[in-house]
Amino acid sequence: MPQGVKGKCGFWLALVIASVISRTDGAAAPDKLVGIHSARVMSQSMPWMATEAGLFKKYNIDFNLVFISSSSIVTAALLGGDAEMTVTGGIGNVAAYLRGSTDVVFIGGVKNTMTQTLAAGGNIKKPEDLKGKKIGVSRIGGNSHYFTIQALRRYGMDANKDVQFIQTGGDPETFAAFVSGQIDVANLTPPTDAQAIAKGYHYVIYGPDLKIPYAATAFVTKRSVMAKRPQVMANFMRAMAETAKLMHTDREFVYKVLGKYLRVTDRSVLDSAYNSEIKVLEPRLVIKPESLQAILDELSATDPRAKKVKPQEMIDTRYLDEMEKSGFFDELWAKK
Q1: Which of 11, 72, 148, 235 has the fewest CB neighbours in a 10 Å radius?
Q2: Are residues 130 and 206 in the same domain?
Q3: How would you class 123 by CB atoms within 10 Å of its CB: exposed for 0-12, middle for 13-18, buried for 19 or more?
């Protein structure tokens, strides 16, 4: 072969190889996605589960999860561009929407009812015994605060007048303050409530019995993020769908992950937490409009704009709809 031809062949071969390598590298590079969750509890543990099960890797996502103990602060971080996905309670997002941040959107649900409990010791045994007591909550304005207001209202009490709220920073911090005697009553979520019971404390108000509708844990992002990164968001939701199936069908795996991240290894505690919580975790990630309507109703007392907003305005189910129509959900749940 003439030298010139050989040179040209070598040149084009090098180009082809470089092109293949470039495409391979591009395909292999995972999509980076930053997420925030607002509570270290079972219902917000799905990103942990997905990480440990290799589901983010399966869907080519490099997911970095950050903890911020407040729905309202999580929402602010989302709006500020610090994250593109959040796993959090609904009240901060709904409040932001009412203030004009209509870029916020709910794309799926984990838990549409509240399962917090109020635990105490000694002679605090009935709801009326809570009057005048110090109640520990993670954050004022967050899920635990909202639950306590709603629960006390059902027993004829005004939380703003009848009790004193102590802000702790999170479920583990509430439990620590409770055990050390800094607060009289603890607002706790599975599995932390089960830890309190295991130590000899008791329920004063058992939240699951009240069935209070509320977007307790939801997947919330921005419409602008969905527009810019549609496939990444779709892949994230598929990973979460597989995680939901895993959590409902593999108890031992859930225990292993909760043990790693929450340092809870007591089998009786994990059993109690799982048995109560799994009943209300959405198997197909449905976000129920009534869970958002409950928040709107609460906020309407101080923000008249809440009366003009419909829950459906804040929901986009395109990813859930796609998984239903394509048969993804049916195929997923048909697997053993």
Answers
A1: 11
A2: yes
A3: exposed
